[in-house]
Structures are given as C-alpha cells and as structure tokens.
Design a protein that fits this description.
alpha+beta; two-stranded antiparallel sheet; two-stranded antiparallel ribbon
Length: 153
C-alpha cells in the first residue's frame, strides 16, 4: 500500500486536530490565557490540558509568559502562528452554528469593530471574490500525485 497523500491539512490536524487543542486556541483568542481559566472554560482534565499546552508551545503556536514570580505563574499567549488560526476557529464556529445547533441557538456571536456580526467568508486575496465549491483547481506539487490520487505507474 502506498503512503497517504502528503497534505498540509493532515499535518495541521496532527497538531491542532485534537479537541482540546482547538478549544485552547478558542479560549486564548477570547482572552482567557491563564491555566485555571483554561481548565474551567474547557473542562479538560488538568493533565491533558498540560500536555496540549506544552505541545502548542513547542510547536510555536502559543508562548508561555510568566506573570507572577511568587508563586511562579504563567499565561499562554498566541504567537503569530496562533493568531493565524483565528479565522479557522471563526469558520468552524459558523459551520457549527449553521449545522449543529438546534432552533437557531448560537452559544457565541462575534462582533466586528464595524459594529456588525462577523460572518466569516473565504475570499480570493487577488480578486476579492467569495470562494465557492467548484471555483478552485488543484495543482498537486508532490511528485507522483494527481488531484484525485497517486499517478498511474
């Protein structure tokens, strides 16, 4: 059996695909940066949360910053890489609001600085058009792969 397709999505999921990792990023983006806040807001076991935080720091998504010397206490702040995950969180939240919440209830609404509710969309950086299914053409860069799978031998 051949190896699976080389893929940035798979590589990203290996880092943040575990439930608590993305919930850590949600909380940090909302301003909850201290361990006790994260435990309370996420509901993860402390040992699991400690492991996720360590991995996110090692990967350069979060930085651990001391905020108290006695006793030593730390908070977790997003790095540039962590900030770049925020649109992913916004899009996941919008999808969940549309497809998983019953009766139109949404647990959180994000307001943009313009005063309107944020409705995330993926747009082309060059032309500004909203990207929709069927508007993209895949160009695999890995030798031996086509858009639909391994190239015929």
């Amino acid at each position: 059996m051949k190896d699976a397709r080389p893929c940035s999505i798979a590589d990203t999921l290996a880092l943040v695909g575990e439930k608590y990792s993305l919930l850590v990023m949600r909380e940090v983006s909302l301003g909850a940066t201290r361990f006790d806040q994260l435990v309370r807001n996420i509901g993860a076991p402390r040992d699991v949360l400690t492991a996720r935080l360590k991995r996110l720091v090692e990967a350069g998504v979060l930085e651990k910053v001391e905020y108290s010397d006695r006793p030593k206490r730390y908070e977790y702040r997003p790095t540039q890489a962590g900030l770049e995950l925020e649109p992913v969180l916004h899009t996941l939240m919008a999808w969940g609001d549309r497809h998983l919440q019953e009766g139109g209830f949404r647990p959180m609404v994000l307001e943009h600085t313009c005063g309107h509710e944020l409705v995330p969309q993926v747009v082309c950086r060059e032309c500004g058009e909203v990207v929709e299914h069927g508007h993209l053409t895949a160009h695999p860069q890995t030798p031996g792969w086509t858009a639909t799978g391994p190239a015929a031998a």
